[in-house]
Amino acid sequence: MYKMKRMISGILAVLLVALCLTAALPMAAAADHDGWTGAWSTSPVEFNWKEMLNLGCIQREFGLKYLTFRTRIQPTVSGEDVRITLSNLYGTGPLTVDAVTMARGYERLPQAIQTWTRKTVTFDGSSKVTIPAGETVTSDPIGLSVEALEYLTVSLYLKDTANMKTYGLIGGDTYIMTGNFAKAASTLGVPMRMEGDFGEYSVIPALTGVEVYNPEAESVVLIGDSTLANDIPILLAQRLQSAGVTNVGILQQAIKGNRLLADGAGILGMAYGEAMVDRFERDALNQPGVSAIFLKVGVNDVVHPNCESMKGEAPAVTAEEMIAGYTQLIQAAHARGIRVYLFTRTAWKGYTRNVLGLSDDIQWTPELDQLRVDINAWIRSEENPADGVIDLDFLCTDETATELQPAYTTDGAHFTAAGQQAVADAIPLSYFQ
């Protein structure tokens, strides 16, 4: 659904008072928290994996019952203890998780765990938890110390998955198998991963957050679209650890196809998530221990309304509406003492968005790209109330910054491994001090 009605009435007031309001805000070093800090996260979306993943054998033989999901992730900051968050945000009924374990994993054996580190995860003292539709639950402290960037494995066993409709699509590797393997030393599960012209998705059922107990630490959120839904967060975490910045957790809240002002549209619309202006509080401001947010979203607001497959479904926006949206998010963060840093919107000349191998969905033109150019001009201006800017025009081949260098892009818009590393390296370390 288009999200403009509630913003239009206040658009002029927002633009006029933005600088005055933010000038008076203190530059807080970190948000107050109770010692629990975000170490890993993924943004929840509604996702029909039963239809989109090739798991027909499981459905035929076992229906959608008695399944174990084993997910391996990497926390980005160390802690004395750890706990997890499970979500049933998009469920149509209560979701019962019958058993949960956590253990240290292995780099080269993604389905294996170090059994001597295995812990049973409890919720209010119970090893079984029922999550009402639309809600999340956080576990009790698990009793396992955590080192930054080590591998942790969370195993969920569910007797009935009919109401499981909440998933992350980036940030870990999940394997699915029939039967209760929550305590197994290793498994032979089917990877819950999709790759194609539409992108690459690693499906993560229910698990949306991992926190560590570290009163000296804080977290920062990288939130945006597919240009951040990749390895940039983990590359940044590695860079900080190497530089001796060991008290910052990096949380990945990017969703492929995400837009600033409108929900996802088209054949993969549900996987594109809610509009940033609607999910920002949940996915950024409410993260545990958050002190700063890095925001990169907006190219899809330019591209999607002009795609053949989404015409009439993806609403067009103006630069003024986009600027009001960014300003709204920055002010909401500043009201909580949280800093905000904006990336410039990266070039997309040459990108044709060939979805599902059907045909080119869009062709770049200077006229279409003008909206991105205008937004970037505002991001670089003194009118932008953010606390800093990461200018990514250095990734381009030309002075007009309309086309990414071949070494940095896979398709004209998304980043190669070298491009992701370049973005991670471009973030000033001073932003974490």
Q: How does this model look, in words?
A:
It is a single chain. By secondary structure, the protein is an alpha+beta fold. It contains 10 helices and 22 strands. A 6-stranded antiparallel β-sheet has the order 7-6-10-3-12-13, with no helix packed on it. A hairpin with a 2-residue loop joins strand 14 (193-196) and strand 15. Helix 2 packs parallel to helix 8 (319-334) and helix 5 (232-242) packs across helix 10.
Structural Rg: 21 Å
Question: Largest sheet, described in full?
Answer: 6 strands, antiparallel
Distance between the termini: 39 Å
Strand numbers in spatial order across the main sheet = 7-6-10-3-12-13
Amount of beta strand: 15-25%
Q: What share of residues is helical?
A: 10-25%
Q: Compute the number of strand runs.
A: 22
Helix count equals: 10
Shape: globular
Uncertain runs: 1-31, 56-62
The chain-level structural class is alpha+beta
Q: What is the mean pLDDT?
A: 89
Give a quick rundown of the structure.
This protein has 433 residues and is α+β, with helices and mostly antiparallel strands. Helix content is 22%, strand content 24%. The longest helix has 16 residues, at 319-334.
